[in-house]
Amino acid sequence: MKVDPQCSYCLLSRVHYESELSTDDEILIGRIMQECIRVLNDTYAPGVPAASVSTSMHQRAYELLNDSDPYRDMKEVCNRTAENVFPIAMSMVYDGDPSDNELFRRAVLAAVIGNFFDFGVMGLEVPISLFDETFRQHFIRGLNIDDTSRMFDMLDNVVYIADNCGEILLDTLVFDIIKKLGGHVTLVVRGKPILTDVTMKDIIELGIDEKVDRVLTTGSGSIGVDMSQAPQELLDAFRDASLIISKGMANYETLTEHEMGPIAYLLKAKCKPVARHIGVDVGHSVARLCE
Amino acid sequence: MKVDPQCSYCLLSRVHYESELSTDDEILIGRIMQECIRVLNDTYAPGVPAASVSTSMHQRAYELLNDSDPYRDMKEVCNRTAENVFPIAMSMVYDGDPSDNELFRRAVLAAVIGNFFDFGVMGLEVPISLFDETFRQHFIRGLNIDDTSRMFDMLDNVVYIADNCGEILLDTLVFDIIKKLGGHVTLVVRGKPILTDVTMKDIIELGIDEKVDRVLTTGSGSIGVDMSQAPQELLDAFRDASLIISKGMANYETLTEHEMGPIAYLLKAKCKPVARHIGVDVGHSVARLCE
């Protein structure tokens, strides 16, 4: 996906947000903003991939903050919030002894709603206190794009590219049904901390490595998946997958720049540029298969 | 007032907004964003006056849009909305035969609430359909900073620097009480269209020139008042005034860069940087006298 005008100010607001998470030194924050405006000016041009701008800006901010993980505490909040909502999600997914096909659809829906756990995207945030109720509402509303029936026959050897902390707990509902059906799950997480995205450390702390067959990393702390930095074993896994499942907007932004598949994009459309690119409204729940 | 980190992304969002008001040519909009990022990069530095960044960015956007007034239709909407709310404002200001001092305080409050008619500031917008109710609520809530009693004895020769279309109709409630008390009102409007700000053309179309003693302009289409472009008669008016009344955030941002006074700042604090500079919360109603 190419950069949109809106990305420019969303990214500056996010750099400001993460700077304030990391420090209260206003002089340093002012210097980071000035430097990230310079990086924006150097990288922004109509038609460039969105992630080439965003990765450069965030990495420069992290360097100047001298902080490898400004979202450390925020990730913890995301996980705790997801733990609270998990029992509700579980009961709604398994309610009334559904068929495997229906179970898969519901688990995907729960995982997509979990994508709301990402804090800091300008324009669409859900207060933590409202998450239970929001989860119920969005579950009842269902998927706005639902290709889960077509995905259902492709679950032999799944590569599942995770997005944020918090939502990763809801992703396990999808892992469970794939495993129940006899499928193999390779989970992919970021190589280094970036935003609230899941890393290997988070996966081990949460015990999620035991829910899947293996865990690989993207090989970098870039936004989404930077294929130029992807380890060979990840490239092999993509090639051999019966289905790649890509979670969230950052993975969508980066993977739509490459010819690969079959790939399923599971996400909440949380900003106008991504929503427009997919052809849905902001707030819609998406499970689209591209073959 | 100096530039704040938040100004950087607020300004880019506003440039995007006004570009979309003026054209649906996405290629042109992309080029304008890229160019305004360049202007932001050239002008933004911690400690520079906020208006030196904002004026440069907006003027470059207007040039590239080849549009002298992208907010043309929006200004019309502001005026129509203000016309609808005016009878309610009038009745609340004059309710119960108030003293002149109280009448002035209420008229100032109504004018401050009118400052909400500015559309397009990120983070605080009031839907048109809710304006009546919002007006009532804010009127009952009153002024969070109220120096009107001290202003009341300074109304002999007032220079009133207007802000936006729409709210200018509510400003006439203040003009009326100053005139009733025997004072002289010099109204100051922008020299050229900028954002939804009032120009001489707007004043004449609305018949507001008949409500005041004379109308001057800032001599430019800069944000707020750019003193380096102010005509001599405006500088003379400032010097001779018993009280300068400055309406809204843009005038506040620019006039706080100069030693002048006595000056009264009437505004709704619509963004964090201005609210913090004044020492109030976002959404607060301010009538502060600086002597």
TrEMBL record, chains A, B:
InterPro entries, per the entry: ARMT-1-like_metal-bd_sf (IPR036075), ARMT1-like_metal-bd (IPR002791), PH1575-like (IPR014444)
Stretches assigned to coiled coil: none
Domain of life where this protein originates: Archaea
Domain Damage-control phosphatase ARMT1-like metal-binding: 4-285
Gene3D superfamilies reported for this sequence: Uncharacterised protein PF01937, DUF89, domain 1, Uncharacterised protein PF01937, DUF89, domain 2, Uncharacterised protein PF01937, DUF89, domain 3
Protein name (Swiss-Prot/TrEMBL): Damage-control phosphatase ARMT1-like metal-binding domain-containing protein
